[in-house]
Write a structure and sequence with these properties.
It contains nine helices and four strands. It is of the alpha+beta class. It has two domains: 141 residues, PX Domain (2-Layer Sandwich); 201 residues, Substrate Binding Domain Of Dnak, Chain:A, Domain 2, CATH 1.20.1270. Strands 1, 2, 3 and 4 form a four-stranded antiparallel β-sheet that branches. It comes from Blepharisma stoltei.
Length: 382
């Protein structure tokens, strides 16, 4: 079962001090006054070029027997802060509460990556960094989220101040942040909650958003299938590489004990399989990045849109009792605008990922064919 970023306490490899996980009911405004005026800040209050935000390599920290990872965040090449994964989770949940109609990309879940690599490998953190950076770039490019106090606090506050803010806010573990349960198998990609009964349609907005919801469910299922196929492709290619390396070594060992005429042919075979393995390694590196970064990012973007649509339905049904302070008119306007942006990015990502995968496979096939042609010519010429 694929878990969500909200299950971070049970999934994260980093060790958290149990005493620091105490939360209280959120307030309308933070009671803590920021001390930013007393600090030199390089992060602007209004970001014009969000492409200048970047995350550095994951850095490991130790506190006694405990350890955890942080990611340095840069703007225009200047280091701003270091942030842990759980702090990204907090930021996204704050957006879900404050801007319920705005779409935010889902964060890279542990199980979303662990299907390809374990958290003991450095590439795991490379993939996580990519996902978190994409999340921040989209937030920084969003007209509302980029101007929010939550985002500026996240990008400016020192560790102590941010931890105080986190303790003052309610830990989101239900529908409002991310889905509490959804399965990764193709037959049940979206959880039963997502496929629950449709709310009674009351106006044109309900019809529009539920149509979008149905379409995105189908798209998400396709993306889950693509991720599964990509995982299988990476696994199979890795096996082929190991097989060719083993064959190369076997032919090389056989060559040492055979007569000169046969030994020369075995040498050609050993070199051929070695060259094929090198070609496959080059393609393997490209394909695993495509699967672990771009394909997963495409899926997470769709998941974020689905979550926002589900959140709207929940608020619409329960608003009189719980969400009376939320304007459905404003929520609908935000969601409709973000869905338009999502549709544009969806088209670009879909074409980009598909085209790159085709190109990588064609390149590998052509190079392997060339290796075999050269080997054949050597044997004939010999």
């Amino acid at each position: 079962m694929r878990r969500t970023p909200n299950d971070i306490e049970s999934l994260e490899e980093e060790k958290i001090n149990p005493g620091s996980g105490s939360y209280t009911k959120p307030r309308n405004r933070y009671s803590l006054e920021s001390d930013l005026s007393n600090r030199s800040q390089s992060f602007p209050s209004n970001i014009q070029d969000y492409q200048d935000i970047a995350l550095g390599e994951a850095q490991k920290h130790r506190e006694g027997r405990e350890s955890y990872y942080t990611f340095p965040i840069y703007h225009n090449g200047t280091l701003l802060v270091h942030r842990r994964y759980r702090e990204f989770v907090w930021l996204r949940n704050q957006f879900a509460e404050t801007f319920p109609g705005c779409i935010t990309t889902a964060l890279p879940e542990k199980e979303g990556i662990i299907g390809y690599w374990t958290n003991q490998e450095s590439i795991f953190y490379t993939m996580r960094r990519y996902g978190l950076e994409k999340f921040l770039k989209r937030v920084a490019g969003h007209p509302k989220l980029s101007q929010s106090q939550e985002f500026l606090f996240f990008m400016r506050d020192d560790e102590a101040n941010l931890q105080i803010r986190m303790k003052e806010s309610l830990a989101k573990k239900g529908w409002i942040g991310t889905f509490s349960d959804f399965k990764s198998s193709v037959s049940s990609t979206i959880s039963s909650y997502m496929y629950g009964e449709q709310p009674i349609l009351q106006d044109e907005a309900d019809v529009f958003f539920n149509t979008q919801r149905t379409e995105l469910r189908g798209l998400y299922q396709q993306q889950e299938l693509l991720c599964s196929q990509g995982n299988e492709m990476v696994t199979n290619l890795d096996a082929e590489i190991n097989s060719n390396i083993a064959l190369s070594k076997a032919y090389e060992n056989m060559r040492k004990v055979e007569k000169e005429q046969i030994a020369e042919k075995l040498k050609i075979l050993a070199e051929t399989h070695h060259q094929i393995a090198e070609v496959q390694k080059e393609s393997f590196d490209k394909i695993k990045l495509l699967v672990g970064q771009d394909l997963e990012d495409y899926r997470r973007l769709t998941l974020g849109a689905l979550e926002t649509l589900e959140r709207r339905n929940k608020i619409k049904i329960e608003k009189p009792e719980i969400y009376a302070n939320i304007s459905m008119r404003d929520l609908n306007a935000d969601l409709k605008k973000d869905l338009e942006q999502f549709q544009q990015e969806k088209i670009f990502l879909g074409k980009s990922v598909s085209n790159q995968l085709i190109i990588y496979k064609q390149e590998m096939t052509e190079k392997i064919s060339e290796v075999w042609r050269e080997a054949y010519n050597r044997v004939i010429g010999w």
